[in-house]
């Protein structure tokens, strides 16, 4: 078997904790769980903050605040009553809203900008933005070939026959992956946003 | 007791492929569960045509967080490279540190491998002043022991970041699909770049700064379409980007 076998390295052994395992360890206050949570959710949170705030420095600050306040407030997280991803998403919404409020306050203080401030949107995060970021994050976590197929379908807007041709896969396989991928994403989306009471 | 409609069928209808026949329509008219599922899928599909590109926070953000929380610097040092979530496999990197015991053995096998020069093709520096982004490094992908096939991998710097242009020849499987991986020379971590069409090749976005982190082995594996995102352990051709 030679090389083909040995060099597939440890991807199988190094089993990543599941979100539920991270949540449990987080609630117990085990420091390792914070880096696991960061690894799992920082891209989603940073992307959400960046989309909502349109500024990298602000998005970095908000991401930092989310993890810091989540860790300090971990006693308020109950792993039996909700998902850690949903809880962190809720905190992210609040921190983004705080930042937007602070911005419009600054704007109002400047007389010239007062009128502009009136026209600014309310300090809330659009639900659709949250949904899209969550979907993008979950799509990126699919295993191949499903991930590549869904990327081509939804980022590149290719038709199913075009995807089948591009990947040299049977059309039926492509369609089946898209259907199952959609059902999976719907399930994940519901978990993260479905019982988020803050929306 | 009502038998619900098949979820995959609902997904198909949500995409506008066909639609409910008479009995399907009758069922939908009387079933909240199936109606809700269909509506949720349609709503989600509406949002999926404008999906954001994911953005990874800068590496130093983790240090800022552990600083503010005064957590053990040891933890901070071991910090996760912020995950590149385009790659599901990336999540394993955090876990890898829990397997130090295994590291030596694995490192040894990888060292043996690299020592054997498997897959290290001739490297060439090509400069291209055309509009196409310049190729920084081009390597050959050679078959592993007992395998057949060949390929090339070109590292390209585009405005959107590093890209890997992969071609292959002599790969023909009746079953499954080919997948492009970047394996870390530490032998502990790998990330998947995506599905490779063996006849037309493909261009793949390289996430973040992973080459600098040691993900230099380019590996093409044959994967069964079994829903398992892990590497199949069936590598076919491979090459290593120069350090």
From TrEMBL, chain B:
One of its GO terms (cellular component) is plasma membrane. Gene3D superfamilies: Anti-sigma factor, zinc-finger domain (1.10.10.1320). InterPro entries: Anti_sigma_zinc_sf, RskA_C. Keywords: Membrane, Transcription, Transcription regulation, Transmembrane, Transmembrane helix. Residues 223-243 are annotated as: Disordered. It comes from Kribbella antibiotica. The chain crosses the membrane at residues 104-126. This is Anti-sigma K factor RskA C-terminal domain-containing protein. Residues 105-230 form the Anti-sigma K factor RskA C-terminal domain. It holds the Pfam family RskA_C. Coiled coil: none annotated.
